[in-house]
Write a structure and sequence with these properties.
By secondary structure, this protein is of the alpha+beta class. It contains three helices and three strands. It has a three-stranded mixed sheet. The protein is globular and about 25 Å long.
Amino acid sequence: MANGNTANTDNPVQRVNTAANTAVQWTAQAAVRLENIPSFVRETAKKGIENFALENGYTQVNEKCLDEAKEHFNM
């Protein structure tokens, strides 16, 4: 990085803003799983997962959160 800091590749996160401008972080592993969702429903699924995360006290979407959301939405 230009500021001299090195990126943490062990658990990188991606900041994602929800419609309510609440930042939700996604782990790299969760972001990969998101990409496996068919593109025509991905954005809807992403919003649902983020809302689930916020409603259930998650500060980031990780694989555990995805598994719980998947069960919650019966998928």
